[in-house]
User: Which sequence fits this backbone?
């Protein structure tokens, strides 16, 4: 039996809807063994972030080294890396380990509005981490910060994706369209071609952790050796179903349903 393994390097969400917790749930649902390196601990629920406590740099490095030196990883993803020093450390660890299947989710602001990336960390993100990425998965506000351009139309999304690849050095980019009106179409640019990832919009406040879950699903599929386009389409279906079949828990922005894909959207194991 071949065990595919994925490492998430991100923050902990005590409410379980985003961050490390969302990533590990997603890995599990997609038949990938999940491992983690926690960069920060947040006191968080569906109503907001009530505290952020950074892990010391040595602690982050030791976690990554412990995982990679023994278990290894077929793919990795990053989430909340709040300070420039953390980004530089993680980038150095990724580079030394030779990890090629890296998904960078440029987490900047929580669903409730809390800033999760310091302003002085934006340059470190662009210069140190994005060039190592197999794919970067910003939403529209994040794409605007990364590229310095205004993104409102589908054509803007395409141009932002091109900049992330051609100017900032990522191998591919997926600019997510959830912040636009209408159907939430995402744009994937792989350095040569554009691909549209389409889905249905469901009106709900229970969308906490959507970005984490989407990028984790891509990471899981890459860990299994799937090509990026196939991984992206699986991730799009995974998150669409997770939003559609809402759990309805919490008084604010509730978590998505990580069970939904396995119950409705996954191919049978005989055909997988």
Assistant:
């Amino acid at each position: 039996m071949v065990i595919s393994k994925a490492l998430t390097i991100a923050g902990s969400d005590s409410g379980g809807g985003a961050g490390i917790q969302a990533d590990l749930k997603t890995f599990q649902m997609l038949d990938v063994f999940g491992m983690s390196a926690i960069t920060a601990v947040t006191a968080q629920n569906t109503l907001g972030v009530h505290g952020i406590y950074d892990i010391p740099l040595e602690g982050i490095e030791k976690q990554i080294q412990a995982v990679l030196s023994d278990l290894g990883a077929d793919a990795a993803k990053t989430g909340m890396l709040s300070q420039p020093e953390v980004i530089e450390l993680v980038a150095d660890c990724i580079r030394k380990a030779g990890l090629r299947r890296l998904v960078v989710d440029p987490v900047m602001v929580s669903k409730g509005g809390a800033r999760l990336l310091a302003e002085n960390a934006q340059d470190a993100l662009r210069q140190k981490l994005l060039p190592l990425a197999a794919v970067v998965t910003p939403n529209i506000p994040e794409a605007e910060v990364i590229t310095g351009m205004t993104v409102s139309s589908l054509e803007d999304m395409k141009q932002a994706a091109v900049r992330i690849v051609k100017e900032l050095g990522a191998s591919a980019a997926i600019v997510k369209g959830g912040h636009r009106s209408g159907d939430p179409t995402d744009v994937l640019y792989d350095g040569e071609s554009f691909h549209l990832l389409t889905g249905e919009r469901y009106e709900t406040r229970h969308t906490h952790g959507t970005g984490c879950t989407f990028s984790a699903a891509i990471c899981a599929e890459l860990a299994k050796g799937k090509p990026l386009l196939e991984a992206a389409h699986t991730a799009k279906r995974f998150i669409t179903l997770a939003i559609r079949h809402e759990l309805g828990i919490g008084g604010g922005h509730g978590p998505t349903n990580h069970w939904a894909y396995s119950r409705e959207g996954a191919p049978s194991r005989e055909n997988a």
Summary: The chain has a mean pLDDT of 92. The longest strand covers residues 33-45.
